Amino acid sequence: MDLRENAPRPGPPWPGALRRAWRGGAYVVSGALIGIPLLVALAGGLAVGLAASLVVVGLPLLGLLALAGVPVGALERRRTRLVHADPAPTPHRTPDAPGLTAWLRLRGREQATWRELAYTVLMAVVLWPLDLAVAACTLGLPLLLALAPAHLALAGGPGGGGVRPAKVWLVDTWPQACGTAVVGLVLLAALAYPLTAYAAARAAVARRLLAPREAETEARLAEVTRSRARLVAAFEAERRRVERDLHDGAQQRLVALSMALGLARLDAGPGGPLAERLATAQAEADAALGELRELIHGIRPQVLADYGLAAAVEDAADRSPVPVDTDAELPRLPEPVESAAYFAVREALANVARHSGATRAAVHARYADGALRVRVSDDGRGGADPARGTGLTGLADRLAVLDGTLTVTSPPGGPTALTLEIPCRPAPTA
Asked: What is the mean pLDDT of residues 237-250?
């Protein structure tokens, strides 16, 4: 049995070509119809703005006219779906703050806004006349020829003096009218491919100007960055929750247990076996309480939340087994920035104590020119490599979420310097 007999056979290719021709024709004709009022609106707005600029009122109007490309670009990106199945992505970013002022400020800085304005002017001056000419040649002329019988009937029939469809030749009989209609239909079919090709090229130009590939790439990278930022924010929120639960829950229970054991020691006779066991239990409870406090401090130090990064850096330096000189003069910064910088400093000081053999280290931190800059240096043996699993790779990834950078300079023989930079703004004061 030959399975090919029951295999589905591909259908004829003409339905797809007909659909493409119809959609291409709709794209070209709609472009011509949009361009005419667009030219009138731009010319009228420019004239009114220039005339009113003599009394200063026209300057805001001219500024708004510069944004005329934004709605036109959005409409054109939607119109390209007549030719391209996949929608054209928007090149615009979402404002960080709500309100019209933030939207206008962002749109004025974006290159996409000025590309859309250039495309709007190009469409109003060049593209719509070209669309109109192509539509007239590929659709208008064949349709006028195809409608020759109807034209002849409206003119009174063969005895009415005849008609000239599309001003090409005289038609005064029914056979001539039918022959002209056949010529129009054949010409319409023959010009369908050039029309489709022009529509595809025209839509490609629109997409290239209004939705360039780099804009799509930037949009995807921005979404990845935002998703990573959301993950970091969720991680920080979970860190704060764990710290709060340990501080308010387990730590308070251990404090109560230590106090209860102390009271029990007072009730037990001194020097007896029970007193010794209670003393041992209280010492274990105190040790567990100390370890829990260190764990809470490692999760999120209270000094960072209460006093900021400068005080937290001083605290980390005091806890370091290697003497550390600190020079940190900082305003309060956003919480994610302070947290990322603090843990980077703490990891750097831990690496100094474990691997460098240094006798002294230094931490210098400043906020200037819209960025936090922290430098951790030591006089150790050098040769540090972040790729060897010192924990700095994870810190670099964490800083990258905040658009920050981490640089390590550690030649053999030293010294070693770790520099981090995070663009940010000072946190608003309460």
From this structure: 66
Question: In sequence order, which residues have a C-beta less than 8 Å from that of residue 255 and are 6 or more positions away?
Answer: 289
Q: Cα separation of 284 and 55, whole Å?
A: 84
First to last CA, the chain: 84
Which whole-number Å values give the CA distances from 325 to 216, 302, 361, 372, 417, in the listed order?
47, 22, 6, 19, 14
CA angle 106/111/113 to nearest 5° reads 70
Q: Which amino acid is at 409?
A: T
CA–CA distances in Å: residue 411 to residues 298, 360, 382, 415: 30, 17, 5, 7
Cα gap 101→103, rounded to integer Å: 5
Neighbours of 8 (CB within 10 A): 5
The answer to whether 113 touches 107, Cβ cutoff 8 Å, is yes
Residue 376 CA to residue 395 CA, distance in Å, equals: 14
The answer to whether domain 306-423 has CATH 3.10.310.30 is: no
Task: Supply φ then ψ for residue 377, to 5 degrees.
Answer: -130, 160
CA torsion angle for 238, 242, 244, 250 (degrees, to 10)?
170
Beta bridge partners of 422: 372
Note the pLDDT of residue 3: 41
Helix (H, G, I), strand (E, B) or coil at 367: strand
Peptide bond into 71 cis (omega under 30): no
> Quick check: 329 and 366 in contact, CB under 8 A?
yes
Mean pLDDT, rounded, for 254-269: 76
Query: Backbone phi, then psi, for 366, in 5-degree steps?
Result: -145, 155
Please, what is the Cα angle at 307 between 304 and 313, to 5 degrees? 55
**How far, CA to CA in Å, does 22 sit from each of 83, 282, 335, 400?**
10, 87, 57, 49
pLDDT tens-place string over residues 77-124: 888 888 886 777 788 777 877 888 888 888 888 888 888 888 889 998
The pLDDT-based confidence of 224 (bands split at 50, 70, 90) is: low
pLDDT above 50: residue 2: no
Partners of residue 327 on adjacent β-strands: 364
Helix H, strand E, coil C: the string for 67-90 is: CCHHHHHHHHHHHHHHCCCCCCCC
